[in-house]
Amino acid sequence: MEVRKALDGRAVVLMLMLCLTWGLQQSILKLSAPDIAPVMQIAVRSGIAALLVGLLMVWRRERVSLANGNWRAGLLVGFLFALEFLMVSFALHWTSASHTAVFLYTAPIFVALGLHLRIPAERLNGWQWSGIALAFAGIVVAFMGHSDSTPAASTSDILWGDFLALLGGVSWAATTVVIRCSDLARAPASETLLYQLLGAFVLLLLAAIALGQTAFRPTPLAWGSLLFQSLIVSFASFLVWFWLLKKYLASELGAFSFLTPIFGIGFGVWLLGESLETRFVSGAVLVLSGVILVNSHGWIRNRFLASRG
Fold first, then answer.
1. What is the domain partition of the chain in residue ranges?
2. Could you tell me if 25 and 95 are in contact, meaning their C-beta atoms sit under 8 angstroms apart?
3. What residues form DSSP beta bridges with 5?
């Protein structure tokens, strides 16, 4: 069994690049929305990335076997993955990219709750329950993060978008729980990723057609966004992430990945000129603190004990 090691300089640089990439994607989706709707863009990027993953599997001589029954869980995972990004697409129409990034990254909280109910070894301890309480308090505060000067209609729209982004986080969490609790947990990462990408491509393309959101204006921004989303986000970044998970400690990688929503907020302010309410920022800090406490409590405890030793 391969021993995983602590983060070194190479891993830190790669994680910074991944967090920047993942934090940027919501802002790029919203920025290019006038040229290509987010739901259509995610469908196209998923199809291109699925083709690339399929070619990679052929090159590696990996096969997807229908005999092992993984396809059943694969169908569910593909549906949930598509549902996550359908919620994100709708959320970006109603709320800011900054809000979407924060509420989407509540997913680890719902993963912890789901695994607590399904896997005895994943029972939550006191520190983790405290983190969940802190995160849910942050969600409440963040939902209240609108100034009194904001028109009631606009506030209603933003709250609806925030709720859809939160549902996206729940869908992402459900995807993770299904993978962990099925035979997909022992399948190659490329096979699991292929199920997710194919599900998103088929279902989101159908949704785009049904909603009349298939229009495409071939501007440089639209093409650049599609290339970025397809090659960098949906293909390269996931392959790098899976490689890191095989080489380095998951707890340290997980703690580092929480920079993503922070970058997401920064890009929303910088690229889209989004304003940040004080209460939303306070809620976001509580949410991220709770998520870190839930997912990285062991790493934090070990670091604390080491510093005292």
1. 9-308
2. no
3. 248
Residue 123 pLDDT class (50, 70, 90 cuts)? confident
For residues 296, 299, 305 and 309, what is the CA-based torsion angle, rounded to 10 degrees? -160
Q: Name the CA radius of gyration of the chain, rounded.
A: 19
What is the band of 148 on the pLDDT scale with cuts at 50, 70, 90?
A: very low
Contact between 162 and 277 under an 8 Å Cβ cutoff? The reply is no
- Listed in sequence order, the residues at least 6 apart from 181 whose beta carbon sits closer than 8 Å to its beta carbon are 115, 118, 119
The identity of residue 91, as a single letter, is A
Neighbours of 289 (CB within 10 A): 16
Phi, psi dihedrals of residue 5, rounded to the nearest 5°:
-115, 170
Amino acid at 64: V
Please say whether the dihedral angle defined by the alpha carbons of residues 284, 285, 289 and 292, taken in this order, is positive or negative: positive
Q: Binning pLDDT at 50, 70 and 90, where does residue 11 land?
A: confident
CB-count exposure of residue 17 (10 Å: 0-12, 13-18, 19+): middle
Q: In which band, very low, low, confident or very high, does the pLDDT at 298 lie, cut at 50, 70 and 90?
A: low
CA gap 135, 96 in Å, rounded: 20
Asked if residue 149 has pLDDT above 50, the reply is no
Mean pLDDT confidence for 146-168: 77
